[in-house]
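During the reporting period the student researcher (J.K.) took over the structure-prediction task from the postdoctoral fellow and processed the backlog of single-chain submissions. One of the processed entries is reproduced below for the supervisory committee.
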Amino acid sequence: MKRIFCSLMMICLALSAWAVNEPKQGFGVQIGWAQPILRLNSPTSKDTLSNTVKLNGFKVGLVYDASYFAGFGSSIGLNYTFGVANMGWKSTTIFDYPQSRTLITYHQIEVFVDWQYKFEVANETYLMLYTGPSIQCGLDFAMRIDRKEEYPPMSGDIQTIYGDRLNAYNVDAIDDSQDPKHQTADNALKRINITWGVGAGFQYKRYFLRGGYDFGLINPYKNADFTNGNHTRGRLDQWNVKLGIYLWYAD
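J.K. obtained the following structure tokens:
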């Protein structure tokens, strides 16, 4: 999968270099909303990252567009994505502290290549459709998990008993019932994720709006389920909506 992505990237870069002499190209910045979705598709006895975890945050980055012929072109860029999820109260196996809650934060760098087609609906006004791959790399402080054992908010006051800050890319699976104050993320994640996105957008002169969904193409989990040894499987997807402006645009 990584070789396929690199080949696609090289083809698109070559086309972009060829398009330097073409009349329509632009370089700009974009910022918007992002929702990384960590899906768990296989059974697991743990619930550190169970079922589906939706993280809400933002995306910011650089983008270069090039048109080749008849509205067909490509968009290449680099994004930084941040997401956060504040999980609700869950029951624990600890008698004195019956509930806990978890805060998850997510940071990644993303390189994307989109093939796009622009329909000119009015003067300098376009509708667009796009699709293409992206490769995402979690940063060293990415997918941090703040787990706290607390008293539930019965009287309005929450007392923190202990808290751990974990890196879900670098931990090993252990049984948290043996040492609950040093528990780790049992479904540890791979640092590299590859997605394929589809989306639509609108452009007016130098301004553009794009929105779409990226489907995870590889299993992001690297550890087996603690109980039965079956390999944990899932996907890391993402919704996103981006608003941008071309700082340089040749039409």
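The committee noted the following: The CA atoms of residues 20 and 172 lie 48 Å apart.
J.K. will present the remaining backlog at the next meeting.
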